[in-house]
């Protein structure tokens, strides 16, 4: 087995293992294993202005296997995650794993 074949197998068997890191979420109408990384999202958010004129941005950063997702979303497009509607902020893909950052603008409730 080559290194790349082993890496691909490890990503499937460890990183996206439901007993270790992954959870099932509904991604654009299909249930699939994803890994949510709220800590990485906090780092991204710390460099951006989060509060503007009574609005705040709520977001999700998650990793998904390209075997599950099939096609990458385009930045700026609408994306459904667990029955919520988001906008795609960024997409990165490497070695069969995609990192997707989503955001939704919400108003503060008073």
User: What top-tier CATH class fits best?
Assistant: Mainly Beta
- Amount of beta strand: over 45%
Overall strand count:
7
Put simply, the count of helices is: 3
Largest sheet: 7 strands, antiparallel
CATH architecture: Beta Barrel
Structural class: alpha+beta
Arithmetic mean pLDDT? 83
What is the helix/strand order?
HEEHEEHEEE
Rg measurement, Å: 15 Å
Low-confidence stretches: 51-56
Shape verdict: globular
Distance between the termini: 59 Å
CATH fold description: Thrombin, subunit H
Q: Write down the domain tally.
A: 1
Helix content: 10-25%
Quick tags:
single chain, 110 residues, alpha+beta, Thrombin, subunit H, seven-stranded antiparallel beta sheet, 3 helices, 7 strands
Describe this structure in words.
Mean pLDDT is 83; it is low at 51-56. It is built from three helices and seven strands. It has 110 residues and is of the alpha+beta class. It is 24% helix and 46% strand.
């Amino acid at each position: 087995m080559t290194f790349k074949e082993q890496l691909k197998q490890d990503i499937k068997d460890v990183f996206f293992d439901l007993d270790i890191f992954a959870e099932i979420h509904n991604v654009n109408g299909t249930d699939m294993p994803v890994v949510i990384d709220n800590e990485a999202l906090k780092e991204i958010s710390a460099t951006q202005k989060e509060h503007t004129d009574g609005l705040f941005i709520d977001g999700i950063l998650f990793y998904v296997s390209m075997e599950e997702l099939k096609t990458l979303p385009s930045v700026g497009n609408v994306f459904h995650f667990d029955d919520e509607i988001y906008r795609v902020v960024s997409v990165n893909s490497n070695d069969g794993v995609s990192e997707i950052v989503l955001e939704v603008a919400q108003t503060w409730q008073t």
